[in-house]
Write a structure and sequence with these properties.
Elements lengths: L1 E2 L5 H9 L4 E5 L3 H8 L6 H7 L4 H8 L9 E7 L19 E3 L2 H8 L13 H13 L6 E3 H6 L1 H12 L22 H4 L1 H4 L16 H18 L7
Helix pairs in contact: 2-3, 5-11, 6-11
Length: 236
């Protein structure tokens, strides 16, 4: 699952982990991303110390056996973690899905945890590039818009399971509140809301106010979002 930050990707991870047949991995390229870019993210030093900073070793693990030899393996990835020097040859061997969200919603949520933000921090440009690369390779990935998904989570999950050729599980719709051992070490900085959740919550209207700099990021990302939004999975 290739997402950007603040995009229900952790709640989606909860849904898959709650299946009895599924292992999950939480942003396995994050430590390499921080070590290589030098960016100052919340808990940066902890993330680097706890994770694997050699992207080749990460890829070797991601393309090997699933943890515990689980039949299903949900890998939660951020597309902005795919730095330009990382080879993409391994990605085509996975079943890939893109998870998108309106950049206005993403930026409004992101700046609550990290004030500094640039367009590439939310991964939409990289999602478009990955979509086009995978489509050219023969299998265009399904695109799920989080706004649509939250209005009909079961229908979207059933459609995704059908595409993957696996059975849907009702356990994907509800999960126990609290942290998971599988959560990244950065969870205290980013996962407060999802740790209190027990399922997907339908979106409601809310007022969003952004600084001029934050709005500039939204404006830069909007064309990429529009491109993917037009390709999104539509369910009955």
């Amino acid at each position: 699952m290739w997402s950007g930050p603040r995009n229900i990707s952790t709640a989606m991870m909860r849904a898959w982990e709650n299946r009895e047949d599924c292992a999950v991995s939480d942003e396995p390229l994050y430590a390499h991303y921080l070590a290589d870019t030098g960016l100052d993210h919340p808990g940066r030093d902890e993330v680097i110390a706890d994770g694997e900073t050699d992207w080749r070793k990460v890829v070797d693990a991601l393309t090997g056996p699933a943890p515990g030899d689980a039949p299903v393996w949900y890998q939660k990835h951020m597309t902005h973690h795919l730095l330009p020097h990382i080879d993409h040859g391994w990605i085509g061997g996975l079943r890939n899905v893109l998870l998108i969200r309106d950049p206005r919603e993403v930026v409004a949520s992101y700046v609550k945890s990290r004030a500094e933000i640039a367009a590439d921090d939310i991964g939409l440009r990289q999602q478009v590039e990955l979509y086009e690369e995978l489509a050219a390779g023969g299998e265009a990935p399904p695109v799920i818009d989080s706004g649509d998904f939250l209005r009909a989570p079961e229908a979207h999950l059933r459609g995704l399971c059908d595409w993957l050729g696996i059975d849907f599980s009702e356990r994907m719709l509800r999960w126990p509140k609290g942290p998971r051992r599988s959560d990244g070490i950065w969870a205290p900085h980013w996962y407060a809301h999802v740790r209190e959740s027990t399922g997907f919550e339908a979106p409601g209207p809310r007022a969003i106010e952004l600084s001029e700099a934050a709005q500039a990021v939204v404006d830069a990302c909007q064309p990429h979002y529009a491109r993917l939004h037009a390709l999104r999975l539509r369910v009955a």
